[in-house]
Write a structure and sequence with these properties.
With 89 residues, this protein is mostly helical. It has one domain (6-87). Helices cover 80% and strands 0% of the residues. Helix 1 crosses helix 4 (55-87), helix 2 (22-29) crosses helix 4 (55-87) and helix 3 crosses helix 4 (55-87). The relative contact order is 0.20.
């Protein structure tokens, strides 16, 4: 399964990271999918690993993977903001 090119995505969302306040950064760091969504993603992941995804499921799972990559990069930026904020105090 293809994933997003993290260095390119990182460059594109750097300006977003600079807009995060410490309060928003804390919320973003703690963001998680709801239990039902996470269970569905886990089910798709198991089916993907077994090679049992339908074409529709494959597209759906790829969308989740891309979204997770994007969120992970934003969360990394948020953690960096919180580290800098703590160091400045």
């Amino acid at each position: 399964m293809k994933t997003l090119d993290a260095p390119i995505l990182d460059r594109l969302i750097d300006p977003l990271g600079r807009m995060l306040t410490p309060d928003v950064a804390r919320k973003l760091v703690h963001y998680r999918f709801d239990a039902a969504t996470q269970a569905h993603i886990d089910k798709l992941a198991r089916k993907c690993n077994a090679g049992d995804l339908t074409d529709d499921e494959d597209r759906e799972y790829a969308t989740y993977v891309h979204a997770i990559d994007f969120i992970a990069i934003l969360q990394a930026k948020a953690r960096a903001i919180l580290r800098r904020s703590a160091a400045a105090k």
